[in-house]
Amino acid sequence: MMPFELAEPASLAEAIKLLDPDDASVRPIAGGTALMLMMKAGVFRPAKLVSLRAIKQLSAIETQGDGALKIGAMVPLSVLERSAVMRAHAPVITQTLRTLSNVRVRNVATVGGHLAHADPHMDLPPVLIALGAHIAVAGPASERTIPVEALFAGYFETVLARDELITAVVVPAQGLRRAAYLKCTTRATHDWPALGVAVSLDRDGAAVRMARIVISAATEKPVRLPGAEAALSGGSDDAALRRAGDAAADEAQTISDGQGSAAYKRQLVRVYVRRALSAALGSTGAH
Q1: Of the candidates 3, 62, 55, which has an alpha carbon nearest to the alpha carbon of residue 30?
Q2: Rounded (5°) CA angle 197-35-41
Q3: What pTM was estimated for this model as a whole?
Q4: Which helix (H) or strand (E) is 229 found in, with range?
Q5: Are 218 and 197 in contact (CB under 8 A)?
């Protein structure tokens, strides 16, 4: 690796001041699990890294007054995985984390870094989108909130400015909503998925009143599928699930990569959307 400067600010304000909106070689670093691999491969050669590890305010998990759960950006994924508060609030996140890479990575990788990296194969983004989560972002002039759904601009791209930092992820109260996440991997269960499908459902008796269906890995960024959501609306029988799966396959703009061809992934979408919906409908309470 090329030599670089490492800054270790103790406060969020200090960290933001160290970032340069006009210099792409100055980059914040959280867990570094992805960034260090890019540096070792020579894909990224930073002049300065701004470490966020010493900023204590980014490491808390807190329940807010409206029932939402606020997760600090520097919370390691393994801490979130073991959190009883997280498990009670949205068990689907806990279950998703159990097959996200391996425990060595989860011990180091952070929630904020996971999102900021914007790799479309990541497991958490589609789940957070399905749950209606948003992120808190701090910059030199102000703070703002962004729905996770609106964070990703494209392949490895976000809407964040170079001098902005994710400070927290906020997952709203889920009530009686039911959720599930399924992924298809071509090798081990913890490997990069060829497809990830996250769904969240609101039911009125036997009918689905509102659904959020999100796919990732098969597309350039995590995306909701409103056509599939509309196809499911009002129904929950096998015919409705098949309609939603078919609509999802027609709607998804799949891509080819090392995990499979676009045509293969389109068929995965058809099957796995139906399976994820079935899994969510079969769960008891928010799952």
Answers
A1: 55
A2: 110
A3: 0.95
A4: helix 226-232
A5: no
145 neighbors 136 (Cβ within 8 angstroms): yes
The strand order across the sheet containing 143-147 reads 61-63, 69-72, 165-171, 134-138, 143-147
| Chain segment 58-81, per-residue pLDDT in tens | 999 999 999 999 999 999 999 999
Q: Which fold has domain 5-50?
A: 3.30.43
256/269 Cα distance (integer angstroms): 14
Domain 58-171 matching CATH 3.40.30.110: the answer reads no
Dihedral angle sign, alpha carbons of residues 263, 264, 265, 266: positive
Question: Which residue reads 């078919």 in tokens?
Answer: 246
pLDDT confidence tier of residue 204, bands split at 50, 70 and 90 = confident
User: Beta strands 48-51 and 26-29: pairing type?
Assistant: parallel
Contacts of 165 (CB under 8 A, 6+ apart): 12, 15, 16, 19, 28, 52, 73, 112, 137, 138, 139
Tokens representing 115?
């999102």
Superfamily of segment(s) 178-282: CO dehydrogenase flavoprotein, C-terminal domain (3.30.390.50)
Range(s) within the chain of domains with CATH label 3.30.43: 5-50
- 3-state SS assignment for residue 50: strand
Domain with CATH 3.30.390.50 in the chain: 178-282
* Amino acid type, 169: V
Question: Are 196 and 187 contacting, i.e. CB atoms less than 8 angstroms apart?
Answer: no
Residues counted in the chain: 287
